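[step 3/7] inverse_fold.run input=structure_tokens len=219
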């Protein structure tokens, strides 16, 4: 245990030296592009006590990407948020993690009972250095049947259309289905593809009842 704690401290020390992790000046710009100071604040702040202006930017990122990828509008005032370095997607709980310090997780929970088709829970992994959404999951207040099924062909059509429409992979790459699993009303798909001679994959989860993608994970 002592060795693990020491290793974590060393990793943190190498990633964020004393100078770079000193309190940063607040930036005047209000764009969703993070400044160097803001990125240092996010990367080095393992206690997740972020500056309020940075928190608002991260929440705005979540809101904008909810619209971009899932076509939903979120009323930010009707959501409560958690922000951290790692999240458990199944439980929608923030779990701090010492590595991957450039990755940040934003989780939103609806306050009270949402109306039909409104967001219940939403979570996103965002790489602040690459400025890229790595993983996102949404739960909507919609009818759900755990016995609902999709044929493999229909699931693949839904998955491929989502990937193409949302431009999750470079244009022109060939997608190959590597996994197809139907479980409790959901279809789990994994596509393999090659970019610059590197093997890549993207995983999707489809809500069979509503025939919509509710999660994607880009490796």
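[step 3/7] decode complete -> sequence:
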């Amino acid at each position: 245990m002592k060795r693990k704690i020491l290793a974590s401290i060393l990793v943190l020390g190498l990633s964020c030296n004393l100078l770079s992790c000193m309190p940063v000046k607040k930036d005047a710009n209000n764009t969703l592009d993070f400044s160097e100071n803001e990125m240092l604040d996010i990367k080095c702040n393992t206690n997740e006590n972020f500056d309020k202006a940075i928190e608002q930017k991260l929440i705005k990122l979540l809101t904008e990407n909810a619209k971009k990828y899932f076509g939903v509008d979120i009323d930010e005032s009707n959501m409560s948020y958690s922000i951290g370095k790692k999240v458990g997607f199944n439980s929608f709980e923030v779990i701090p993690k010492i590595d991957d310090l450039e990755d940040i997780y934003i989780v939103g929970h609806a306050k009270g009972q949402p109306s039909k088709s409104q967001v219940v829970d939403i979570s996103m992994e965002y790489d602040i250095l690459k400025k890229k959404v790595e993983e996102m999951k949404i739960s909507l207040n919609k009818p759900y049947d755990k016995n609902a099924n999709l044929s493999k062909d229909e699931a693949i059509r839904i998955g491929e259309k989502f990937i193409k429409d949302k431009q999750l992979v470079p244009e022109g790459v060939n997608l190959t289905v590597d996994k197809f699993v139907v479980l409790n009303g959901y279809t789990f798909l994994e596509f393999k593809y090659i970019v610059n001679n590197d093997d890549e994959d993207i995983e999707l989860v489809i809500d069979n009842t509503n025939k919509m993608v509710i999660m994607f994970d880009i490796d």
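[step 4/7] annotate
The mean pLDDT is 77.
Helices lie at 2-15, 36-44, 52-70, 152-165.
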